[in-house]
Design brief:
This protein is an alpha+beta fold. It has one domain (11-53, 66-259). It has helices at 11-31, 98-106, 113-124; strands at residues 34-45, 49-50, 56-57, 61-74, 81-90, 93-94, 154-161, 164-171, 178-179, 185-186, 188-195, 201-209, 213-224, 230-242, 247-259. The strands form three sheets. The chain has an eleven-stranded antiparallel sheet, with helices on one face. A two-stranded antiparallel sheet has the order 2-3. It has a two-stranded antiparallel ribbon with strand order 9-10. The longest helix is centred in the first third of the chain and has 21 residues, at 11-31. It is globular, with a radius of gyration of 20 Å. Mean pLDDT is 83; it is low at 1-8 and 262-268.
């Protein structure tokens, strides 16, 4: 059964979505300012082609291993999630200009808060490989679908399996959650696994497509004892299929979650390793 946009959901599913919306609202408070160690492998494959004589050319492959501190935040207007990926090691080699980048991003005056947010987003994608300019490789991104102000534009359908619900969704609006760099809409769809008793999100699978690109981000959550059992991203898998046949895949795992520390002089301090 699929409900039309604006149509009431079945009572049990509607109750679950209300519970989950409350959970996501609390999560925005509890998870903001959390830092994690991220180990991130990316692989990119170009499409096969032909040379001037018509002979096939093997697709090129590229790999990159990143180690980073990742800081999860909300934008100043609390409108959407952001992350600052502070890469300190690329393919086993330390990043030399790390301190200078942190100073420029957080301590030097910015033209505007919004501009600073854009600068942080750009910096976080600095070491991504492949031909897709992307900054949606953020594990908590899919939770935005469940926020109260987004629900009227999303169709939900779910089934309960013992202690959890498998909830499918698809977005139906012009101003989609995810857009291309050319401001083209990328309607999202996918599903969540949600704990029936608490409304907590156990895993998410988000797919967004345009005429030239299909992006998929899958995330599993696990309880973190150092944060009082808060569910945190454990593993993120991503895949980007371009119309030209090129593919980008990534796998990020997260560990050592802790709260960001601020020095007493109110200057942001890099997280010490």
């Amino acid at each position: 059964m699929v409900a039309a946009v604006g149509q009431a959901q079945p009572p049990d599913l509607d109750e679950l979505l209300d519970k989950t919306a409350d959970y996501v609202a609390s999560y925005q408070h509890d998870f903001v300012g959390i830092v994690a160690d991220e180990t991130y492998r990316q692989e990119a494959r170009s499409s096969r082609g032909t040379d001037l004589r018509g002979f096939p050319i093997e697709a090129s492959r590229q790999k990159r291993d990143l180690k980073s501190d990742v800081l999860f935040v909300r934008t100043p207007d609390a409108d959407y999630w952001m992350q600052f990926r502070d890469v300190y090691e690329v393919d086993g080699k330390p990043v030399r200009d790390r301190a200078e980048r942190l100073t420029k991003l957080f301590l030097e005056p910015s033209r505007s808060v919004r501009q600073q947010a854009e600068d942080i987003s750009t910096e976080s994608a600095r070491y991504n490989i492949g031909g897709v300019n992307r900054n949606i490789n953020l594990p908590v991104l899919a939770l935005s679908v469940l926020e109260t102000h987004n629900r009227p534009w999303v169709v939900f359908n779910g089934s309960r399996k013992k202690d959890a619900w498998d909830v499918e969704f698809h977005e139906e609006r012009g101003g989609t959650l995810i857009r291309t760099t050319g401001n083209q809409s990328m309607p999202s769809r996918g599903h969540f696994l949600i704990d029936a008793a608490t409304g907590r999100v156990l895993s998410s699978d988000l797919i967004a497509e345009s005429s030239s690109l299909r992006a998929r981000i899958e995330v599993t959550y696990a309880p973190e004892s150092s944060l009082g059992g808060l569910l945190v991203p454990s593993v993120m898998r991503e895949k980007y299929d371009s119309k030209d046949g090129s593919v980008i895949e990534g796998r990020a795992s997260y560990a050592r979650f802790r709260r960001y520390q601020v020095q007493t002089d109110e200057k942001l301090a890099p997280v010490k390793k």
